[in-house]
Every structure is written in structure tokens, then in C-alpha cells.
Amino acid sequence: MNGRPSGLLVPITTPFDAQTGDVAPVALRENARVLLGMGVDGLVATGSTGEAALLADDEYCSVVRWLREVVPDDRWLVVGAGRESTRATIDACRVAGDQGADAVLLRAPSYYSVTLSTTALAAHFRRIADDSPVPVLLYNMPKYTHVNFSEALVAALVDHANIVGLKESSGDLKQFAVLQATAPQWALFMGSGSRFYSGLELGAAGGVLAVACFAAGIAVRVRDKFRSGDRAAAGAAQEILSPLSREIVDGLGVPGVKAAMDAAGLVGGPVRPPLMDLAEADRARIASLVTQALGAAGNGARAPARRN
User: Fold this and answer.
1) Nearest partner of 290 among 270, 269, 267, 262, judged by Cα
2) What is the pTM of this model?
3) Tell me: the pLDDT tens digits for 18-40?
4) Is-contact 32 9, C-beta < 8 A?
5) Torsions phi, psi of 100, nearest 5?
6) Which residues belong to the active site?
7) 3-state DSSP of 219-286
8) What's the CA angle centered on 17, arms 212 and 110, to 5 degrees?
9) Domains in the chain: boundaries
10) Domain spanning 7-297: which superfamily?
């Protein structure tokens, strides 16, 4: 892909075999085909929702390769490549590029986060961007990294030719607007499904939304109606999307997302320990929420039936 990424990107989950615990490539590719068929602009592999921190290096490489086999050249394949060291992150970027990624998504290192100054973080990301064979998107996810990207950090990186955007997942709309103004040439993606419409109003290039793993049709409607100027219809779709994002994604994390995918007719399946699958009561509540939301949105929001 050429140019600046935009649109609705889905941070796809990594399905695991229930018996062996291994990555399940058939389910991974089938989920990808369904999501792409619903009109999303691309996929983000091995991100937070993809349980990236729980994957071995060989699994990481395989997931990117398997997805590239089904993601067409006119859709984005972005790969989460953040690691704790600068050196390891550069290596992961090279692997992603070798396996066909269009761009990489880089979180901040978290283990030594309390000792990392803005200067240190800027040097880290600059060095990676210097050596990455594909464009870089930064990923602000303070919930997991305990690092919140500052205006000063973005200002220190905005002139790097190989850094093209940022996924902003703090959930703070004021911060989103500040970073958008600081880096107007970047593609800023809203990372909160409950704030997708608001992000588009603020000039977001698109969204990278975990809620789209199981409600892609609704998120596509927000995107399309907003683009066409039908703000009322976009807002109505957002009203359906927001509770799913708050209660399932924000409230229950990856186990909730995977349970919701099962309820929506995709392959969610088990999470990898130390994460734990949800209790049956939670799964039943999620199934009810998803069924009601998809019913309210209409048939166009449903995933097609899975192939046997």
C-alpha cells in the first residue's frame, strides 16, 4: 500500500486451538476474510487485542504471513511490532516487513516506563523509524504501557519521514485534539470504539477499533455515513456501537472481545494464559448484548455465516 493509512482498521484477535493452545491459522484467516468482506479498510495484527505480548517470535512471524495471504494489496495490513528494547523492536519491524506488512504499530516500552524521559522515548522511536523497512504508526495505550504520549513527544517526532501516524487510545478527546494539532500531517486513528464518531469530527483519519472484531458492520456504517455527510445516521450507528465498546471491550478486555466474536458468528475461542476465559454468566450477557445490537443495526451489520 502507498500513501497515508486511513479508514477503519480492525485489530484482529489471534485464535488458539482449544486443545493444543497453538495459534489456529484456519480460524485466523477465516475471521480475516469475513471482516474484509464486511468492508473494513484493513487489519492490525499482533496488537493488544491480538494478545501480542503472549506470542512467541515464531508465532508472530507466522501470524503476519498467514494474514498477508488473505489481505489483498488494496487493504492495509498493519503489524504490532513494539518490544521492550529498541533493538528487538527494530528486528520485529524487519520481520514484519519481510512477511509483507504495509506498516508497523509501535507501543511504548513499559517495563522501565517510570525511568523513560521524553528524550529517551523520542530517541527510541527515531532509531526504530530510521531502520524500519515499512512506515511507522505510533501507539498510545497508557492503560497497558503506563506511558501517555505527550504533546512534547509527538512534537519531537513529527518531522520524521518514516513516522506517518498514531493510534490514540487514551480515550481523552481533548488530548486527541491536541495531538492532531501537533501533527496535522500524520494519520491519527481513534482507538476508542465509543468515541469513533467524535474522533472523526475532530479530523481523525479513521479508527483502529477492537469493537469492530465483532461489530464491524456497525463500525463500517459509522464510517460510511460520516463520509457521505449523513451525520444523523452516523450518530445513530455510533449509539449502537458505544455500549458494546464500553461494556465488552473496556469492561472485559480480550476475553470479552473473543466471547463477543463467538456470539457474532466468528471464531473467538479461548484466550492464552495467564488471561482467563469468561464465566458462562458473562458469556451469556455478552451474547445478549451482541444479539440485541446486531438486531437493532439490521442484517447489513451481521457477519455472513461461517463456512464449514
Assistant:
1) 262
2) 0.96
3) 999 999 999 999 999 999 999 99
4) no
5) 105, 10
6) 167
7) HHHHHHHHHHCCHHHHHHHHHHHHHHHHHHHHHHHHHHHHHHHHHHCCCCCCCCCCCCCCCHHHHHHH
8) 60
9) 7-297
10) Aldolase class I (3.20.20.70)
Compute the distance between CA of residue 110 and CA of residue 120 in angstroms, rounded to an integer.
13
SS3 260: helix
Number of CB atoms found within 10 A of residue 207's CB = 27
**Length, in residues, of the chain:** 308
Amino acid letter, residue 253: G
Evaluate the omega torsion of the peptide bond into residue 109 and state whether it is cis, within 30 degrees of 0: no
Angstrom distance (rounded) from CA 229 to CA 201: 11
Q: How confident is the model at residue 2 (pLDDT cuts 50, 70, 90)?
A: confident
| CA distances (Å), origin 205, targets 165, 244, 277, 308 | 9, 22, 34, 36
What pLDDT score does 5 carry?
94
So what's the pLDDT on residue 304? 72
Confidence band for 51, pLDDT divided at 50, 70 and 90: very high
SS3 2: coil
* CA 260/CA 163 separation, integer angstroms: 33
**The C-alpha cell of 83 is what?**
518490544
Which cell numbers in the block locate residue 141? 495505550
